[in-house]
Amino acid sequence: MLTEPQRQFLAAGRVARLATVDTQGAPHLVPVCYAVIEESLYITVDEKPKRTDIPLKRIRNILANPMVAVTVDRWDEDWSRLAWVMLRGPAEILTDGSEHDRAQAELRARYPQYRAMDLETLPVIALRIRHALGWGTL
Asked: What range defines the domain where residue 91 resides?
């Protein structure tokens, strides 16, 4: 599904934007850290201060409507360097298991900040890539 230039662009990127939709059709967009393994993109719920009495809005939205989009972009004052990759597909919430653990390990390897966090019991969003679009010189 992903082309090699898209994979390389995603590997070089550091932040993505996750778009979900709530039950009223209102979009919700948040910056996230991510890792791509094969044909899925993974996002962990980390230990940053958040309300713990209700699930995060992105989780609630995915449970109500699993179709999501993620965009990774490169901005530069030299507009000939502008580029982006957008991934779309259904998302799942992983709470345990080998795929959950593999995703958490990849995210820890990719982001040193996660190495000091207790992520093992936290959920992972798994975007099953169905469409990949790219623009610019990836």
From this structure: 4-136
